[in-house]
Every structure is written in C-alpha cells, then in structure tokens.
Amino acid sequence: MTFQAPIGSSLPRDRAKRLLAGRGRYIDDIALPRMLHLAFVRSPYPYARIVAINIAQAAAMPGVIRVVTAADLEGVVEPWRGTHNLFPDMKVPVQTALATDTARWQGEAVVAVAARSRAEAEDAAEHIVVEWAELPAVSDAAVALDPAAPVIHQDYDGNQAFTAAVSQGDPAAAFADAPHVVEREFRFNRHTGVSLETRGLVADYDPTSDRLTVHQSHQTPHQQQDLYARLLSIPEQNVRVICDDVGGAFGLKHHLYPDELAACAIAKLLGRPLKYVADRLESFLSDIHCRDHTVTARMAFDAEGRIIAMELDDLFHAGAYSQYPRSSVAEGNQIIRVSGIPYRHDHYRAETRMAYLNKPVLGHIRSVGHPIACAVTEQLVDLGARALGIDPVTMRQWNYLDDTDFPLTSMGGIALEKLSFQACLDRALERVDVDAFRAEQKTLRDAGVYRGIGFATFVDLTSIGPEYYGEGGQHISAQETCLLRLEASGGIRCYTGATDQGQGIDSGIQQVVAGVVGVPVSDVKVNSGDSELCPVGGGSWGSRGAALGGEAALRAGRELRGNILNIAGVLLQKAADSLDIRDGEIVDAESGAAHMTLDEVAAVGHFKPYMIPDDVDADLTVTARYASRGRMFLPANGLHVAIVEVDTDTGLIAFHRYLVVHDCGRLLNPMLVAEQVRGGVVQGIGGALYEEFVYDGAGALCNGTMADYLVPMAVEMPDIEVEHLETPTGTSELGAKGAGEAGTTGAFGAILNAVNDALAPFDVTLSETPLTPTRILQALGKI
Amino acid sequence: MKAPDFAYMRPDSLDGVFAALAQYGDDARILAGGQTLMALQNMRLAAADVLVDINRVPDLPDIVEEPGHLLIGALVRYAALAESPLVQQHVPLLADAVPFVAHAAIRNRGTVGGSLALGDPAAEIPACMLALGAEVILSSAAGTRTIPMREFYLGLYETALRPDEVLTAVRVPKRRPGQFHAIDEIVRRRGDFALAGLAVSGVAEKGAVEAISLALFGVADRPVLATDAADLLIGKALDPAQIETAKDAVIASLDPPDDPITPPAYRRHIGGVLVQRLLGQIREKLA
Ligand SMILES: Cc1cc2nc3c(=O)[nH]c(=O)nc-3n(C[C@H](O)[C@H](O)[C@H](O)COP(=O)(O)OP(=O)(O)OC[C@H]3O[C@@H](n4cnc5c(N)ncnc54)[C@H](O)[C@@H]3O)c2cc1C
Question: Above 0.90 for ipTM, yes or no?
C-alpha cells in the first residue's frame, strides 16, 4: 500500500514555532482566580515512623490557608494498590496520598501546606515539626531479599515482591556441553528521566457542580481522569484532565504520584484552585526512577561461534511501593523477555526478582528494561567473539535471525513478525568502513590513543496491545480513536487520544489525516491532551502514538473522505468512486480535472442537508477506532554503532561517531523520527555515561541537584547519524511501528561495547553503567 | 525552592555598603553577580536576611593599569575579563582561564570579586590568582588592607574577609619577559566545576625554570600551591624526567577530601596527569 504526501514527508512539527516563540503553555504559566499554591513537607529519612506532627505554628503563618495531613484527607481520597492481574502473586501494599504513620522513602510527602504563594507555603513548611522515629532502612535489593533484613511492609513476610521466569529448551544441558561459555555480572545503576518541565498540575474543583478540572503536565489524560474520578469519588463525566504543552515526560509522567493526588484532594477539600509544581530538588527525590538492576548472564557458543544458549538472572527493586496504575514489574519482565532476542538460539532461561526497599518508586522510564537486555546480550556476543577470535561484525552476521526465520516466537515468548537485523547491519557497513577503522585503531594504539567501536542490535517492543492492561485490570487504553470534523470552510479538526510531549505526534497524525483525506497539511488542526474533548485513548508512552493513533487517524480520514465524496457525487451527479480529493479540491479521479472545492461540499453538508438523499452517508463528523488484536507488541528493530575514544589517563570518554540504523516500519515523518532517535540516544548516553543517583550507607540521596546529578549536555554529544529502513508491519494498514524509545534502547550496549573494544589491549571488561571516569580508571588499575 | 523573604538594599557608594554591613553584620550578604548567592537563597541554604547589592557602587575600579600590576575591580564580570586587551596582554592566564568557568550566561553576570570571595575550592579564578601571586584588597569603614592570595583562604569557603569588609579589587602582577603560563582542568562536562584543575605560571631563563607556581584546584578544601613540586623544578630544565618527578611530588602532596561521587584517589591521580600534561605543553612552548 502506498500513501500520498504529506505522509512520509519531513515537515517541521506543528508546535515548534509556537514553543520557540515562548508561547507554550506549561503548568506554571497557568494562573486561575483565587488560586493557592502547595508545598510539601517530605520525609528526610528513608524509613521512619511518624510519632507526632505539630502544625500549630505553621498554620498561623502569613498567607497560609490550610495545613493538611493524612488524617485530613480521610474520606476525601481513597488509598490504592498497584496490582496487575496477570501477576496475581505480586505483593502490593496499600498506598496513600500522604504518609499516614510511616514514611518508607526519603522524599515521601507527609504534610501539605496550601498558601497564597509558593514562597509562603515553603515558609510555613519549614515550621512544621514532625517528630520522627528513624527505622533501619534497607537500600539494596540483595540485602532486602535476605531473610534477616527488616521487612518494609509489615503485611508481608518478606521484601520479595515479584518473581518471573522464562525457560525454553534445555539450557542446563546446553551450557554443560558447550565448547565456549562467556559469563558476566552487570550492574546498571539508578537514574531517572529529568524532564525540562518538572511535574506539576493546577487542580480546580467546583463544589457546586462537583466538577474537577486538572491541568497537568502528563502523558495520559484519560488515565488520570479515571483515577481522579475513582479515588476522589467524583462522577467521571465531571472530571476533565487537560495536558496542554508538556515540557518533556519520558515515561515519568504517566503515573499517579501521591503528591499530585494529594493536590487534587486538597483542591476538593478547599473548593479553590490550587497549583503544585515540583521544584527541581523535589523532582530528584520524588520522580519515578529507573534501572538499579544487577544482572548475571551467560551465553554458550558452539565451536564455530554459533550461539547455542543464553541464561540470565536479574535482581532489582520497585522502591518502596509498586507504581500505580501500571505496577513496577515491567523493567524486570522486559529484560527476561527481550534479552537475546535478535539471535538464533534454542535454549534460554531468564529470571527476574523484584524487592521492596526504602527508596523512591522505580518504574517506567523511556525504554523500560530494553537498554539492559540489549547491553547484556550485546556484551556477551562481543565477549563470545573475542573468546573465539571472531570479528564482532561476522559474529552478528552468523547469528542474527534472518528473513527465513520470520515469523517466529522468540525464546522470551515475543511474536516477531518480520525484523531487519541483517539489512540494518548491511546499511551500517555502507556508512562505517570497519576495516579502515580497525587499521586506524591499530595505528592510534601504537601512539597511546585508544579508540573502540561498539555495535548494539536492538529490538524495541512498541505499541503494546490491549491485552496486557486489559487483562491486568488497569483502566489504561491501548485502543485509539480519532474524531474528525470537517468545518464549513473546508478545514478539518482532528481529535486524538494520543498526546504530544514534544515528540511531535500531533504532526504525524496531522500528516496522516491530510494524506488520507487529500488536503494540505495546514488544513488539518490536531487537538490532543484533553480528556473531555478527545476520544478515550491511551496518551503517549511505550512508543505507541504513530502506530495506534496514526492508524485510527487513517481510518477516520478514510471515512471522512468517503463521506465528502458521497456528497460531491450527489452534487456533481457522478459516482463517488470516480472522484478524488487532491490538495483540498474535488477532482475527477482519472483526468484530475477540478470540479469543486471542499468548502462547497462542506457548506452543503452542514447547511443544505436537504440536498443529500437520506440513504447517502454524509456525516462530516466521523470517528474511527483502532485496537490491535492477537498481538502483544509491535516489535521494531535497529542497530547502534558507536565509535569512542577513551582517555586512559583521565577515564574520560569522547565520541567520534554515532550511527543508528533504525527500522520502525512506515515513517510518517522521517525528520521527526530521526529527532526522536537522536533525543533517545542522548538520553541513553545519559544513562551510559553520566546519570546516576548515589546513596549513602543509610540510604540517603547524596546528589539530588543539577550540579551533581549529571545530565548529558550538548557540548559532549556526538553528531548522531540516523539511517531509516522501512519494514512496515502487516498488522495495520499504515504499517507504522513505534519509534520513541529506539535511541535509548541501544545506547548502553553500543557504548559499553565501544569502550571495551577501545580498552581491549588492557584486557579489561567494564559491565557497569554509567561508565564514570572513576570506574574506567579503577578497571585499568590506575587508582 | 523559593527564597524566603529578605531585605534588599542597593547603596550607591562604598560607604553606603559599609554602613549596611555595619548595621546588619552576619545577617547581611553582599550581592555581586548573584550566580551563586541567589541559588543559595532559593534553596534556603543559609539564606541571608539582607542582601546588599554592590552593582551600582561607582567607586569600584574597572580594569586599571598600574606600574607592574593590573588592578581588577571586584565587579568585573568573567566575560569582560576575558575580552579585556589589558588582561590579554598583561595577564593572559586569566583570559585563558575564563572559558573554563561555567557557561556563557553565568560568565556574563558572575564577577571576579564574587568568585574570589566565595572561594569555591574548584573555581578557576582563585587558583589563577594564587599562581600569579596576586593580592586582594579588602575595605571596610575602618580602612583598607591588602592580603596576598596565599593567605586569603583559610578553609572550605572560609576566607580572611571579615563580615564588615568588601573585597574591592585584586592586584595582579603583569607578566615579565620569559614568563609562561598554562591552565587546564578535568571535567566530565564542559562548564562544570573541575574534578581537578591546574593553573601554572612561571618564568624561564635560558631553558631553565627560574620561578614557577603550580596552583591546583578541586583537590583540597581551597586552591593549593604545589610548593614541593615547584621547588624541585626551580633551576632545572623542564625535561621529561623532571616533569615526572614534579608529578610524583604533586601526587604525594595531595590529600583530596572524600565525597560520595568522586573518590580522593581519582582527584589525586588526575592532579598528577594535569601536572604532566601542562608542564609538557610548557616544555614544548619553551623549546
Ligand atoms: C551552573 C553554574 C556553573 C558554575 N560553574 C563554575 C565554574 O566552573 N567555575 C567557577 O569558578 N564558578 C562556577 N560557577 C559559580 C560562578 O562563577 C559564581 O557566579 C561565582 O563564583 C560567584 O560570583 P558572583 O559574582 O555571581 O557572586 P555572588 O553569587 O553574588 O556572591 C557569591 C558570594 O560572594 C560574596 N561576595 C560577592 N562579591 C563580594 C565582594 N566584592 N566582597 C565580599 N563578598 C562578596 C557574596 O556575599 C556571596 O557570599 C558556576 C555557577 C553556576 C550557576
């Protein structure tokens, strides 16, 4: 199936100009009449009992309207549990908006102050006296699972929250007999997403109509609508969640945060609009974190270097609670499902264990679990190549699944339709002359300069289907609906359930509608991020917008186009299928001769409906929905190639090249996909080289500011080259797969492999991220 | 992260500043570029009750040429320092140091006086002033005193400044014939405070080192002079063996503080690497 422009055109995104001009509307830009501001008193301890709270002095301070503790919210807001019915054995403790008698992580909100200004709220918060009884904290997953460790949730008999395992073939026998086995322990330290706009909301409750409107910096307005309605006992049709411009989200804004729910509850309690915007210090303490995994893995090879088997054990933790409403199992669960996936092998075993301990909640951030699965697999492949004296490229060519293998179900149970590993590698080899690099590498090594090349093949499980959360019992839509309305002027309004956090999905959907209906892209206006106006949908996360929102838009576009042609056919006394819409005009499908314009059709459709016979489909407001069936994911794939130089005196790493060959099926807008990949790589570089939360022995965060939690910055970033291949999925008409996480997925693996290749002469292997200069020099034995 | 209420004063003379400091004592803080102070206020870290803004004080010097010296006023911004022809000609080390300081926006506001008065152990300008043998001028209602840089820092963020004093200027010797200099630092991201840095200033005479100062930053509670290494180099040619000896002496002299992110061993090691690299560069330049 071919599609006409602008589908597939590299157009600038719709919002860019407005945002660049400073006309974005973020949460802190919103001011409502009588609006209050909220500040929280947060637990300074990772684990402590709340003995007493004295609010007397704070409550009397200037500008303070109300000081709120958990007791004040009883009956206003319900507690919740982050369960998932597909994992019925998972332990899921009850969570509340404000801590009741115990704080289980440093930064947990305990008391809220509503005041006329944020500064006054902070003043008062400093005068709230909480009497704490500190408890011994658990801050390491292995320690948490020790039977002697203190139990974090007294309802349970231990801290183990969840385990899952996959096994195929006979891995034990395969390893026992294998001529070559490589094994490593990997450590992926803890980091987060760091969006430019921090979390925030303005909650506005009107008691006279029992109506709650929440402006929120969030990825999933409909999910929040459902949660606020249920937890605050407000009829859902009275709850509206608006996510206007969102200044970055990366997965950390598709959950329910206790402090945000508390803000909504307090707005309801007070009947006044209320703003809460997390400041940067609060963000580091209270945003969802990710990684913090220890993985032991091994791979077995035959004498020629073919992969026979892989085994993996993953240990991680959820922090103090299971994130809501999705639960926290996915990072571990994805690791055991995606590891080893690009390679043909017959024996596989993978297990994950998740603990509870006294740290902030660990959840879903861009590329859940995938960077770990990819890095582990790709490093084992490189180690195997090294052990067998085979070049890493050849090693991959031999072992990749190829066209003859598809479709198949992977060892981890993932249905793979058709992926393009070999073609991605071929394209990369056209761009990177590996032989020339090896020659240069050798010359440079003789001069004491250490460069290395790293390859990382990845599979990205995008666009999750409805079965996962549907069966899980969560109210999270994996179905997308698109509503189109032809205006009398001939312009089209589009309402989608996908949301735009800067990635530009609005523009992708705009291009689909324009291409399918046959109008200029400027004639289509996309509206998203409003739970009241937009059809129920899932928002944007898990690389789903183009594949799901795009397909719904295609269907709606086709329906609107059909109805327009029906009306035109009546007016022109011609068969509708002899007509076409091109560039906003009704033309003869064969000759291209113009007949009439879209606004003439629309004028009749809206104002002279009596001219159209009753049996003609002539709705100019149409909706169409798309939900996948019988597939859990739409796997996309690609390859990262990193060339780095390691300064063996200082341990610093500099990029010389970075290439991503990426295949996400049909491209709606190649430029936007390339930018998603680039942004993803930068975030991956963050995790691979810079970003790491450091805790002291007592479990307290040591680096919760922008000065010592290092995010990647422009100067150090490589010029990221992106190549596209297009292997459309056959499961939808559009054929698009997800693209938003691909850049992050492969970055850890490519960089680890490149650094280890650079350091090959020293016979060291690093398997811990981030690759800090200290870790490099420690590995080299220099410090 | 909103500052608590504070009073703001903007005297239009040094006397006015002295009066404010006399009145409010420890509760007052001088506001110069604000690039550190305002962040501390917003984070409510030891927030001051009164900020005394010195940006409109006319009697502070700009960059003034004196016999043998440049006088650099406290309010000179980093950006102006780097762009000054006087500085480029007479104290090029300072001009070379500025690009290592923070980012352009911060360099447009941050001041030489603020940097010296704050005394961040990893800051570039204080270390350069130490290497150059500069002296700071401190004034109060009681009068003016001049203190050599090597006596100015007393500990972590601790200086010889008294609560009633303003750092008004710094006096820096002009370069002499045969003078060399170099600066470099190790950072994970351009613009960060240094994990370790080194500013070198010295004089070479007929291929031998006549005088040399090695000021390290980011490796102790304040910028430090590597005097043992300097003593070893004086009177000698900068050959690889000498450089190696100096490097070892520096490594032996360093005892960096522990911090949760960067272990002392790393800072000590790269301190040595910097000595080796910069002395190597100087050796090449002198050859
Ligand atoms: C993101 C970021 C990165 C940075 N990176 C670096 C870096 O790499 N290197 C570096 O050196 N600095 C760095 N800084 C700090 C910056 O250089 C500061 O601005 C500077 O150190 C302080 O100068 P200021 O003029 O802004 O002082 P202010 O912030 O106004 O004051 C700082 C302190 O000095 C006192 N003070 C100021 N002037 C005087 C005076 N004349 N007499 C007596 N006391 C005075 C103030 O009372 C206050 O206590 C960075 C800052 C930021 C925000």
Answer: yes
